[in-house]
Design goal:
Layout: H1 14-24, E1 39-47, E2 53-62, E3 68-77, H2 88-100, E4 108-112, H3 124-132, E5 136-140, E6 157-162, E7 165-171, E8 180-186, H4 190-199, H5 208-219
Parallel strand pairs: 1-4, 4-5
Antiparallel strand pairs: 1-2, 2-3, 5-8, 6-7, 7-8
Helix pairs in contact: 2-3
The protein binds two DNA strands through residues 44-47, 49, 51, 82-85, 87, 90-91, 112-114, 117-118, 123-124, 138, 140-144, 181.
Enzyme class: hydrolase
GO molecular function: deoxyribonuclease V activity; magnesium ion binding; RNA endonuclease activity producing 5'-phosphomonoesters, hydrolytic mechanism; single-stranded RNA binding
EC number: 3.1.21.7
DNA sequence: GCGACAG
DNA sequence: ATCTTGTCGC
C-alpha cells in the first residue's frame, strides 16, 4: 500500500502554502528514474458544477499493453481556492486519498500539471512524488514558462525555460499537434520522463494514463 | 497602469 | 476547469 508522508499541515492561507513549498523544495530529487517501468499511474481531477465539488481519479496502466489494471476514485470538496502556483493544495488531498486506495503500487506517477516547471520549482508532480516517495513526472497542457515551437514530427522537443532555467521540455507527442509540457516531479530525470511520455502516447496528444483517469473521473 | 496566470 | 463556433482529418 502507498504510504503518504506527513511532511506538512494543509494550509489555509496562500502565505502558508508558499512557505510549505519553499521548505519542501530542497527535498525533491531530480536524479534517477525507475529501473523498470511496468505500470504507470494517471492522475486527474474533475471539477463539478459547484466548482467546490471535485473528483480525483487515479488509473494504473500496464505500460506494455496500456490496459487499466487498477483504479480508484475519491469525491471531495475543495478546501483551497484555485491559485496558479498553489495548485497542489487544491488537488493533492483527494489524489493522495485515491492513491491510498490502490491495491497495485505503480512504478511512476504521471500527473496532470507541472513538476519542476513551477515558479518555486515545486509543482503538483513534485509535491505528490515527495509525499508518496514515488517517482513522478508532470505533463501539462499549458506551459508555465517560455519555449520555441518544436519541429512538426512526433518526438520533437525544445527546452522549456522559466526564470532563466531549463525546467522541462515542450514535447510533440503527435505530428502537427501542439506539444505537451513535460517536467520532472521526484526521483526522475527529464529525458527519461520524455521517453516515458512518448511510450504512453501512441495515438493522441495526451498520455493514455491521463486519458484513462479523465474518463474515470467524468463518470464517477 | 498592464499583462500573466498549471487545473 | 468550463463555455462555444467553425474547420480539418480519419
Amino acid at each position: 500500500m502507498i504510504e503518504v508522508r506527513d511532511l506538512h499541515d494543509w494550509p489555509t492561507t496562500e502565505a502558508e502554502a508558499v512557505a510549505i513549498q519553499e521548505r519542501l523544495r530542497p527535498l525533491v530529487r531530480t536524479d534517477g528514474e525507475p529501473a523498470e517501468v511496468r505500470t504507470a499511474a494517471g492522475l486527474d481531477v474533475d471539477y463539478r458544477e459547484s466548482s467546490d465539488e471535485i473528483v480525483a481519479a487515479v488509473t494504473v496502466l500496464d505500460v506494455e499493453t496500456l490496459s487499466v489494471v487498477d483504479s480508484a476514485v475519491v469525491r471531495d470538496r475543495a478546501r483551497f481556492p484555485y491559485v496558479s502556483g498553489l495548485f497542489a493544495f487544491r488537488e493533492a488531498p483527494p489524489l493522495l486519498a485515491a492513491l491510498q486506495r490502490l491495491s497495485v503500487e505503480p512504478d511512476v506517477l504521471v500527473c496532470d500539471g507541472q513538476g519542476l516547471a513551477h515558479p518555486r520549482r515545486f509543482g503538483l508532480a513534485c509535491h505528490l512524488g515527495l509525499l508518496t516517495d514515488l517517482p513522478s513526472i508532470g505533463v501539462g497542457k499549458t506551459p508555465l514558462g517560455h519555449f520555441d515551437q518544436p519541429a512538426e514530427p512526433r518526438g520533437s522537443w525544445t527546452p522549456l525555460h522559466l526564470n532563466g532555467e531549463e525546467v522541462g521540455r515542450a514535447l510533440r507527442t503527435r505530428t502537427g499537434v501542439k506539444p505537451v509540457f513535460v517536467s520532472p516531479g521526484h526521483r526522475h530525470t527529464l529525458s527519461a520522463a520524455c521517453d516515458l511520455v512518448l511510450r504512453l502516447t501512441p495515438t493522441y496528444r495526451l498520455p493514455e494514463t491521463t486519458r484513462a483517469a479523465d474518463r474515470l473521473g467524468r463518470e464517477g
